[in-house]
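Workshop exercise sheet. Pairs work together: one partner reads the sequence aloud, the other fills in the structure field after running the prediction. Swap roles for the next sheet.
Pair: D.N. / O.F.
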Amino acid sequence: MLKSFLLGAAWLVLCWQLTPPQLAFGDETGKETTAKPPAETATKDPEPAKKAATPAATDEMSVEELVERANDSIVVVTFSGRDGKRQGLGTGFVVSEDGLIATNMHVIGEARPVSVEFKDGRKFDVTEIHATEKSMDLAVLRIAITGLKPLVLGDSDTLKTGQSVVAIGNPQGLRHSVVSGVVSEKREVDNKPMIQVAMPIERGNSGGPLLDRQGRVHGIITLKSQVTDNLGFAVVVNALKPLLEKPNPIPMSRWTTIGTLSKRDWKPLFGARWRQRAGRILVDDTGSGFGGRSLCLSTLDVPERPFELAVQVRFTPGSGAAGLVFQSDGDQKHYGFYPSNGSLRLTRFSGSSVYTWKVLKEIDHDAYRPDEWNTLKVRVKEDGIDCFINGELAIESDDVAFKSGAIGLAKFRNTQAEFRNFRVAKEIPSDQPSDETTKRIVDVLADLKPQTQPSGMLIDQLVPDGQTTQTVLHREALLLEQRARQLRELAAQVHTRRTQQELSEEMNQPPEKLDLLKAALLIARLDNQEVDVAGYLTEVDRIVDDVRATLPEDSTEDNRLAALNKHLFEQLGFHGSRTNYYSRSNSYLNEVIGDREGLPITLSLLYMELARRLDLKVVGIGLPGHFVVRYEPTEGDPQILDVFDQASVMSREDAEAIIRGRFGKQLSEEELESAIKDFLTASTPQSIIIRMLTNLRGVAEESRDIDAMLRYLGTVLVVNPDHLESRARRIDLQIRADRLQEAITDIDWMLEKRPEGMDVNRVLQLRSDLESKLQAM
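Structure field:
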């Protein structure tokens, strides 16, 4: 009886009636909005395609007839590696007579030259990546030719279970192969609407069309089943259509530079594929050196000995090898300190073959953590080398064969590695907790009982030590597996509280110093503690630098805005998410920057901050269900811009129509005019951040992720403690999660504030019931 009461009572007694305009500052992804996102238009036929006559429903063809008609529209898609040799192979198909080819995004690799070949042997280099949607694994390519034969795009919503279908592709390099089967089901796979087909799918089929017996495309072959050889999956063709309606074209000159290393900072050697993304160095592919060795040398000045260098590294597979190099001659000679197959190894490389390599020392060490980030540090002394793993001395050597040279990174074999926080200095302080700090943190943990949640007081004691706290907690978790769940949860809460504190500090900055970009990245870091806020801020600064480089010294405001639009949308390909609109990634600004797609509010926020750095005034306008911006030049009329639609101009009448469509039936004309005025007023930084958090909460509600919902609600209350709706929702969720003491704390806050409309007597009764249950536990 009490449980039933508790689950519903919080909302009933704490929520009072809010006026529609207060609720309407809602999100792009939450259930409060009735505005349809662009993804719901996915069944429209694309304008760019010159369509062939659609066959009648009864015009079924034999497989032979279908293949004969379709073969001229099927292409082999390949991309090249750094050495110019072919590294990937897949399939594509013509969707427009003027040179548009549809395929999978994974088929074209990343930042590589791409080419296509027709059955008759004609080959064409891709001139433009016309559109991409990473979340759906789709890409549209452009080649310089007209007069092609596009395949007819069907309506995948009409496809029926058991319907006969045919796939054409290049499995295992066997070009223009054909396989037939039936639709076995339509389902979601990895959050993508997919067609499950009963037919064998192999590597090379990816990107090919899934055709019905009338020759209409219903899907794009994407995945092979891991369970059986005779099962595969295709992305629905309706997810492709928005890319043709509103592309985000990127010239190949730009595509091939995405993620490339700065030549000012790094010099790769011996092949492999080195790239960077927001402060990290990533590498895959096998190096051309013996054993798959590849180096990436830093251009940083190396201090005189003694000096230290360090990096954090993580890689797969566990049998791989990657780490630091130093005293390099820029070619084959250097030292290397790196984990290899679970052991730590210090090696002197004196040439190109294994016979010229000498393993100076190889050991196993308890401080090394496989599959996790590990900090490697080397101290290069006058009389030798000291090597450290996660702050502990692991290897000492008196080898001094190489006394000078460059420093950098190395990887071996087929290792896929990530590096971060590369440093060189006369002395690098340890990032590992001291014995004193470790003891103090462990002593604080001594009172933690297995049956209880960590208290707010305990978290507050640990927050000042920041990352050090998390390091100790993870170490304890490994040593005491039976306590691992609690320690990891505590580490996450410390991270959340620390991030919330940083967000609060940023939001309390004076308006001229507040950086909304940093605040939004901190929101992303709530769910991913590896988000490198500083790295993404640097990446945005580079975008601004690139825009400024195109401008004359006497550029006007309109010149700067036009240059920003051209660079952001035409050259970098930023665009609104059209097919996986409700993905949580669209609310994480770091992923929006990396994938170049997002929600109206995340794209608008990025646009506002880029404009601010270009000395332009662009403010946010929180329309119900769709966030836009307003450009306010020093001279001239303001313009409302829809950044989700590549900063297209929106008239005031259209903006008002959105508001009237949402509230016209709920409000009087006088109230409606007041609401319109409120909505068209520039959004405050606080309201923008709360709206972003509300978006994430809406996604968490869909997946019933209570921990995430509590995290977002708690962050809203850090930004605005008086946000009553969030306070009431948090009480309800805390009760559901049996976090009764936390619920009582929030109820006490409500009783102290006594907001208008609250039933005080019922709230007091709820508090008494919670106290009784807590004492009985």
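Discussion prompt: Confidence is low (pLDDT under 50) at residues 1-9, 15-27, 29-57. What would you look at next?
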